[in-house]
Design goal:
Layout: H1 22-58, H2 76-123, H3 128-133, H4 136-139
Helix pairs in contact: 1-2
């Protein structure tokens, strides 16, 4: 099956000589949509990581926001800047954690659907190996001849 990273394998249903049942096509379409969702989550993870790195690079090394204590010497803008950077890091980290959890849950759903699709393809006569190598994006496409997903070989 296509991996979570979106890499597709050639082959799949075409040339296998086996008809792909409508149920298998529906499962493949659901998997294909989940792979697209995964790509969006990865983009969010990358964005959060960039924001974390950018905010962290703005922090002076060895300085904690509370290191100045109460001051009356004009360091207010410095403290305000440090607080803003602190909250930028906090927000980016929260987004990163949220996207990681969402991706973990997505992986569970993908795994369950992949097992169901493999079982459906094996029931239709595919070997385990061919069923696992099937390109879900290709299986999700309608039959070129009839415009339907039923009976495509």
């Amino acid at each position: 099956m296509s991996s979570m990273s979106g890499n597709a394998r050639a082959g799949g249903a075409r040339g296998s000589g086996h008809a792909v049942p409508a149920h298998a096509r529906e499962l493949a379409a659901r998997l294909s949509a989940l792979f697209e969702k995964d790509s969006r989550i990865v983009a969010r993870l990358n964005s959060a990581q960039r924001r974390l790195r950018h905010a962290n690079d703005r922090l002076p090394s060895g300085v904690a926001p509370d290191a100045f204590g109460p001051t009356c010497d004009g360091s207010g803008p410095v403290l305000a800047g440090l607080r803003e950077i602190h909250w930028q890091v906090h927000r980016a980290f929260c987004e990163y954690q949220s996207a990681c959890e969402e991706r973990r849950q997505l992986a569970v759903e993908v795994g369950e659907l992949a097992v169901q699709l493999t079982d459906a393809l094996c029931a239709a006569g595919f070997s385990q190996q061919d069923a696992r190598r099937a390109d879900v994006h290709q299986l999700a496409q309608p039959c070129p001849a009839s415009g339907t997903t039923d009976g495509w070989r």
